[in-house]
């Protein structure tokens, strides 16, 4: 029997969350606060006090102002789902606050009550931070037991091979994630995100239509290899959802998925976990996946790059983004903690629109 995961979500005022999520609940627009969009398609960063670049005259909002206000949290979740990733500076956040934040964002966005916080299948029971906290480091994988050596340039992973969305090998994969780097290198170790919305929009109409009829097998081969290397007899169960059980670490998802909050279509395959297209021959699948993987890593216009500073926080939505760390640290250390919420089983609504289609329709409606 696999070791059980202690996966009790943090204490949350459910009555307040339900009131904020109700149609008649209070409405907060975080764009009334000082901010800037990192790129046209992905990434929004909120200004901090004393930022000489801000000429908007808008008030400053910090993540701490948002954490205990359900209406503001709801607005934050919506913004993250629209922009893919949102950044805050000068924000100290505990690991328990990270967990509470992502779980609250998911609940406010309507995720099933059975979806909690993810527990990595290789997480050692009883780690100090708790089962649901992922330790992120350039020196090890989710725990000091799992060492990796990238101290020399020739040992570094090839950049395009690092792009992924979190835990897509699970039947119920992730929605929101929150990462803070607690040991910040003087330079290097940036994180990049890419928009799944823009990856879809950048495909030709005929390619989009073709992909919408396909599904893909996702598998956690890296964790399976870790377990074999370090003698882990069984993976943790359940991993945050009653459906995230089993030792195969695999799931089948649509190649194009509809985001349940925005209603926009996005590409949903990634080099780290997607193994094959179910409906195609192995050769066809390999060729198509290689094109799609490169489509994400090669197009800089759908990406944003974030440089970490002490007390920086990034919050992203795995349903509409891909991300990759930059392995350029040599002997420097980059370590942090991540909280990861589980969402819903991915699906495609054939009547849903792309991001650009939806925004154009919205603009036309405003002008009518």
Automatic annotation (TrEMBL):
It comes from the Eukaryota. The keyword S-adenosyl-L-methionine does not apply. The keyword Metal-binding applies. InterPro entries: AtsK-like, TauD-like_sf, TauD/TfdA-like. Pfam families: TauD (PF02668). Coiled coil: none annotated. Keywords: Dioxygenase, Iron, Metal-binding, Oxidoreductase. One of its GO terms (cellular component) is cytoplasm. Residues 60-337 form the TauD/TfdA-like domain. GO terms for molecular function: 2-oxoglutarate-dependent dioxygenase activity; metal ion binding. Residues 340-368 are annotated as: Disordered. Belongs to the TfdA dioxygenase family. PANTHER family: ALPHA-KETOGLUTARATE-DEPENDENT SULFONATE DIOXYGENASE (PTHR30468), TAUD_TFDA-LIKE DOMAIN-CONTAINING PROTEIN (PTHR30468:SF10). This is TauD/TfdA-like domain-containing protein. It comes from Cutaneotrichosporon cavernicola.
